[in-house]
Structure formats: C-alpha cells, structure tokens
Design goal:
- This protein has 16 helices and twelve strands.
- It is an alpha/beta fold.
- Helix 7 runs parallel beside helix 8 and helix 10 packs across helix 11.
- The strands form two sheets. A nine-stranded mixed sheet has the order 1-2-6-5-4-3-7-8-9, with helices on both faces. The chain has a three-stranded antiparallel sheet with strand order 10-12-11.
C-alpha cells in the first residue's frame, strides 16, 4: 500500500500469482512483465524506508495491528466483496470484525430526531447482539457509535484516514472510547490524511462488513446513498427510516424505499428480515416511533386541529423550523394521531 501507483485492484491482481515476499524477490524485467509500469517496478525494488519504518513503529504500539487478506482474522463477509482491501490496519479488538454487524449511516447534519433515532436503534441492536459499524463522521455516525457504547455493546469505526489521526478532530474523544472495547479500522496506512476520494472507498468497507445496513436520514445527494447502493451490490440487506415528504433529509431514505429498501419502524423489522430472533434485554424498551415522542412532539400534537392545519401555521406557533416540524409530523402520522390532507396540511384524528 506504500507503493505509488498501486491501488487495491492492482494489489489484488498481483496477489493472484505472487506472495509479497515473491514479488519483492523478482527482477525488474519480471515485474514489468506482470504489466506494472516501470516507475512502479522501480518503487517496489527501491521502497521508501522512511514510510516503512513509520509503519513498523506504529505497529509496536499496544492494540495496533495489521491483517492481510489471507489472515485467519480477516472478516469473511468483507472478503466476499469485489475489491476487498488487501490490508486492514486495526486499533482495538480485531475479533469483532467477524462478529454479526449492522451498519448505521446517515447525514452529517441530521435533525435532533434523526440523531435520537440512530442512537436508540444502535443501543437496542447492541442489546440484541450486533456490533454497530459506522464511519466516525459527525451526525448519524457519531450517534450510532454513542448508542452502542451507551448499551455497553461493541462498535467498529471505519476510518478514511490512517489510524494515527482522527477525522473529524471533534471525534477524538469518541475514538478513544471506541478503541477501549471496540475497534477502529482502515485500509489506509498510518500518516494518510483525509481526502475526498477516500470516503467512498471507506464506505464499501462499512457495507462489506455488515449483514445489513440502516440509513436513518439522508438527503438526495448524500454519501450514505452511495454506501447503501454498495451494500445492495454486495448482496447486503438495506433498511431505511421513512421521512416526511417535506423534510429534505428524508428524501434519500424515501428514494431507497421506493427502490426496494425495507421500511423500518423498529428493530424487529430488521431482525425479522435477517432471520435473527435474539432475546432482547427486558430492561431495554423497543425503540418504536411511539416511544421516541418527546415533549416538543406532544406539544405539536396539541396544536394540530381536527380540521386541516398547515405546516406554516405550526411553524408560526412553535418557532421550530419546517424540517423539525415535518419530522415530528411524520412520527405522529405513523402512530395514527393525525393524517396528511390536501395542500400540505394535517388533521388530528385522535
């Protein structure tokens, strides 16, 4: 991974005929006969030992390790994807990589309800025996990791940088918490900085590790939709939380549902699809939409009349944004408290 010009696919192709030890023993002529460019062959014969020494120094730290594609610890599900990373750098508990996992992803700028939903689903799925996998990003990813930790469960963060740095920096403390019981992993060697093209590559690992992927909130152009489509290509189950047609953060999830993702209202919807019937901790209530109504949502319900009430009227009376109002109205509608009517209005039914 330290050789310029050698990406994941080239690495995997070389591994079909050579072990790394055999490759480094080959002559320049033999290397170019494999289809490698002259500058790549030169880099293999004359590696930059500064980087290699840095990697070896990183591996000397407790809790740090690297596993190869042929290592017995390499997760079987990830190995099945079209382009599995040849190396995985790990901080924390490597055994978790082979445990049953649910990935939870979504917007970096979610609504408060979206963060609460991700947190509660992660917490309950942890109690059901799943490792919660996400990408350490702000927003839904952060809430998902925190939900698993709150349940004293396990969580895996897949990074888009080298593991000697945390991105975003705001999640440095969270990363420390995750490593204590879970793991942070990356295909990028130590010292690798955050770059835009790293995150789609990271996303294929998130989806590749899991049995199913849950999208909580996502706009139309969200990177979470890329992850969801990668999951579909990898034959993983894809789940999505529905949202109001008025909420831009729900449009990605609604689109996924139209394309065949399973609409999810509670964790049982996920467990049934995965044929998982794990005994749930009796002290942990199922995070149905009803159980997540808060004081603001109850107050909003009292403002919806038994005649059509407009969103503009609710915004004026509450001072909340259209986005927040729309999310709460969806909860109330799904629970049967109100109905959507013509003109973007809502009518209370009980």
């Amino acid at each position: 991974m330290r050789t310029p010009g050698v990406g994941c696919r080239t690495f995997l192709k070389i591994l079909e005929s050579h072990t790394p030890e055999q490759l480094f023993a080959e002559s320049m002529q033999a290397l170019t006969s494999l289809g490698l460019k002259n500058e790549i062959a030169q880099a293999i014969k004359n590696p930059d030992w500064t980087y290699i020494d840095y990697d070896l120094s990183w591996l000397e730290h407790p809790n740090n390790k690297v596993i190869t594609l042929n290592n017995v610890e390499y997760p079987a599900l990830l190995k099945e994807i079209a382009d599995p990373p040849p190396l995985l750098f790990i901080r924390g508990n490597a055994e978790l990589l082979s445990w049953p996992q649910i990935a939870i992803v979504g917007s970096r700028n979610p609504s408060s309800l979206g963060k609460q939903t991700a947190f509660e689903f992660a917490k309950t799925l942890s109690h059901c025996g799943f490792v919660i996998t996400s990408g350490l990003a702000l927003g839904i990813d952060t809430a998902s990791h925190q939900g698993a930790l709150k349940a004293q469960g396990y969580t895996i963060a897949v990074a888009g940088t080298g593991l000697d740095r945390i991105y975003p920096a705001q999640n440095k403390y969270l990363a420390t918490e995750i490593v204590t019981t879970g793991a942070i992993i990356s295909e990028f060697p130590p010292g690798t900085t955050a770059k835009a093209n790293h995150f789609p590559r990271r996303n294929r690992i998130i989806s590749g590790l899991c049995q199913g992927l849950l999208v909580v909130e996502a706009a139309r152009q969200s990177g979470s939709l890329i992850t969801a489509r990668m999951a579909l290509e990898q034959n993983r189950e894809v789940f999505a939380i529905p949202g109001s047609i008025h909420n831009p953060l729900a449009r990605g999830c609604n689109a996924l549902i139209r394309e065949g993702a399973k609409l999810v209202e509670n964790t049982q919807d996920i467990l049934e699809e995965l044929n998982q019937y794990i005994q749930q901790d009796e002290k942990t209530p199922e995070p149905t939409l009803q159980s997540m109504l808060d004081l603001e949502q109850q107050t909003l319900l009292n403002l919806v009349m038994f005649s059509p009430t407009s969103i503009d009227n609710l915004v004026e009376n509450t001072g909340l944004s259209v986005e927040v109002i729309s999310s709460m109205l969806l909860i109330l509608e799904l629970q049967g408290y109100l109905e959507a009517t013509a003109g973007g209005c809502y009518t209370r039914v009980k």
